């Protein structure tokens, strides 16, 4: 397993799948290791995937300073990886919370990014508001499923601010296009791969400056792909549409029937979309 040294000396790990031009992949969580990404539905047949385990997760070491889990400080880890790989410019993919780190890197080092891929992106770094009704609208696309009534009632409680621990667990099916055995297994593995202490620091005070980031992205000249899941209540398509408007050169794709993990819902469509953009 390859490793590299962060600028503060923390040893960080990454996993490599496939061959060819590298694509650095930043997982979400936040602060979850890269295992849940798999090979992104087979994208490794088109690019050499560099799957990063963020500091304190997976095979990466725990840092001496827990404040270094903050998203803006993680930008230096991406830059250290670029230096380690000996690349002048990198193609960069982020998923969910990992897209916050991807756009902060692009804002700070725009000349170092060739192409940027944001998969079902989190919006904290850019300050976009996701309304409860927008989330519920995406959830209602599952209304024909047998589990829908109880899960939707739980979602309504969350949106109303009356959530219980059981409610948060009850809405798991909404984040997948199909709540089948594969989706259940994927969801069950999530907690074992996430650093809760690091997640609590990731978006803490000072991590994000949305006005400054939006201004930087408005001047970002590289091509950007934003991919939304049609039925993703975490980042509904209308939110991703607004996000795409922040970039001068953005392509927006809404994957039909997909949830928050679109490479699981339709691997062929997902891979074709991303590979075409990267070619």
Outline the structure in words.
With 279 residues, the chain is α/β, with parallel strands linked by helices. It has a single domain (3-131, 195-278), classed as Alpha/Beta hydrolase fold, catalytic domain (Rossmann fold, 3-Layer(aba) Sandwich), CATH 3.40.50. 36% of the residues lie in helices and 16% in strands. The protein is built from eleven helices and eight strands. An eight-stranded mixed sheet has the order 1-2-4-3-5-6-7-8, with helices on both faces. Helix 9 (237-244) links the parallel strand 7 (224-229) and strand 8. Helix 1 packs across helix 2. The protein is globular. The two termini are 28 Å apart.
Observed structural traits:
279 residues, alpha/beta, Rossmann fold, 8-stranded mixed β-sheet, 11 helices, 36% helix
The CATH architecture classification is 3-Layer(aba) Sandwich
Tell me the distance between the termini: 28 Å
Mean pLDDT: 97
Domain count, please report it: 1
Global shape = globular
The sequence of SSEs as H and E is: EEEEHEHEHHHHHHEHEHH
Question: How would you summarize what this structure contains?
Answer:
By secondary structure, the chain is α/β, with parallel strands linked by helices.
SSE layout and pairings?
Blueprint lengths: L2 E3 L5 E7 L4 E5 L21 E6 L17 H15 L4 E6 L2 H11 L4 E7 L12 H8 L8 H12 L5 H6 L10 H8 L7 H7 L7 H9 L5 E6 L7 H8 L5 E6 L6 H4 L1 H12 L1
Parallel strand pairs: 3-4, 3-5, 5-6, 6-7, 7-8
Antiparallel strand pairs: 1-2, 2-4
Helix pairs in contact: 1-2, 3-4
